[in-house]
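Support case: pyridoxal-5'-phosphate complex. Customer-provided input:
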Amino acid sequence: MEVKKIFLPESELPRQWYNILADMPTPMEPPLHPGTGQPVGPEDLAPIFPMNLIEQEVSTERFIDIPEEILKIYTIWRPTPMYRAYNLERYLKTPAKIYFKNEGVSPAGSHKPNTAVAQAYYNKVAGTKRITTETGAGQWGSALSMACAFLGLECKVYMVKISFNQKPYRRLMMETWGANCVASPSTETKAGQSILAQNPDSPGSLGIAISEAVEAAVTGQDSKYSLGSVLNHVMLHQTVVGLECQKQLALAGDYPDVIIGCCGGGSNFAGCAFPFARDKINGKDIDIIAVEPLSCPTMTRGPFAYDFGDTVKMTPLMPMHTLGHGFVPAPIHAGGLRYHGMAPTISQLLLDGVIRAEAVPQLETFQAGITFARTEGFISAPETNHAVAMTIREALKAKEEGKEKVILMNWSGHGLVDMAAYEAYLRGKLSDHALPEEEIHRALNEIADLPKPKQYRPGAI
Ligand SMILES: Cc1ncc(COP(=O)(O)O)c(C=O)c1O
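Agent response - structure generated as follows:
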């Protein structure tokens, strides 16, 4: 009989995270202070993050122990199952073997709790009482709400307004776990007020919501800010995914030729891909593909430059692919992929050719999601559908080439709270959003005068 699922026992749960900073082919350029333009030191970040996470952010140790308390919480859903997508393979008549790692089995429905639990834990140890954050699609906000409930911390979430209205059930999940969630831009912060003064109908963006959450952390008592993606320590926590995949594929007797993950700030992609990227840096031949929306083409059209992580310019300048901190992407349903920047580690690996990037249009992603649901059963989050679409493209390419490639996709989350998006697709109400060059140029003008990284690359526009 065909083996559909590859399980690992709890005893095989990785005890350490993998830190790609130990193996980067080119050293990373430092984040810069938003005021002075000088490299930021730990003390600059201390008002925002606890020191134990700042230490992790800059650590170059290859493996970092996962504390026992985090492991205990991980066992609620980890190790997650890996599936062989036989039905999709047969439907596509591809010789490729398609594996997908199911991160949708966490209580919050995605990979996000892997870092939410870790960040809540380190904050608790450091004495934080309240964590503030932003959320796009609501997956991150719900993951952090759950993590804060486990660790006895207060949680405040600024949710991008368009998603707040599209996804009322995500908001209710956060409230169920005890968090307080408001639509961003809100009137609660100076950042939110300034955006609303310019545009009362602003649909919000991750950049704006980050500004609000950072302001709330810096001005609140015993409060710290938590980011669900982009930063080195977030990528680190997510590598538990790829480390499990390595064990599971070994059990199946396979090794991936292609690895695929969707990219918002990059954490699910990094989590799955980085342990394998290490193998690639050491000589393995793997095609590692980061997938983004055509309407938010950070990696495929944005320059590699210094830019702020948020819209109101409160965060350090990070060396990354960016569309400009003022860029407000079209209101596509993959709210978690509507971010102007990208993880600096992923941006650097892209420059070094360790990974590559592709952009896919919204309608293709939903078509892929429907195909996946009708063959494999699972209904994917709109973000995840970007990876599914790319997986289908690669499986069809393998068919054309007549190659039995092994494809590994990180299935980052389920879409059971995203059915309004599926309804819009099924009723023919969704469209693709072409992005005019002028719009990118306008947003990029705002970063023209910022310092440039040594490896500055103009975007492909
Ligand atoms: C299910 C899912 N996948 C992917 C993403 C993209 O984020 P990241 O690139 O950090 O994995 C999100 C973000 O909200 C998400 O909810």
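The radius of gyration is 20 Å.

Case will auto-close in a few days if no follow-up is received.
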